[in-house]
Amino acid sequence: MSRIQGKNTKPEMAVRRYLHGQGFRFRLHRNDLPGKPDLVLPRYRLVIFVHGCFWHRHSGCFYATSPATRKEFWRNKLEGNIKRDHRQQKELIEQGWRILVIWECGIRHASKTLDEIPTLITGNDVFNEWPCAPPRQREG
């Protein structure tokens, strides 16, 4: 558990490299905003969260599995994460921010589809999720 990162994860770094290459400029991990968004694009009044499918319970995703041991602990922990995410998203919207949630599985399985992200940034929707690729089946 000590190796779990909250910042600068591989999916987050991939999104940052892509957006910077597309000419978007952003701030990282702003402490003054609810949830410390991974990326903040003030020009577009947009915050981006790059969520891990396991920790944030991406619905229907292959990576959002539940541990087999200490089930009660994990259920409470992961449900708490979901509640906290919703509370923070509500606070951001009330402050006038737009939200884009990018799921880890979308980054893992995206090759050409990253091109959809700039459209979501420049759009007018208050909340967007960047969809993941269809869940992969386990091999074997």
UniProtKB/TrEMBL annotation:
**InterPro entries given in the database record:** DNA_mismatch_endonuc_vsr, Restrct_endonuc-II-like
Q: Does the keyword DNA repair apply?
A: yes
Q: According to the UniProt entry, what is the EC number of this protein?
A: 3.1.-.-
* GO molecular function terms attached to this record: endonuclease activity; hydrolase activity
UniProt record, GO biological process: mismatch repair
Task: Give a single Pfam family match.
Answer: Vsr
- Identify which top EC class this enzyme belongs to: hydrolase
Record-given protein name: Very short patch repair endonuclease
Species for this entry? Vreelandella glaciei
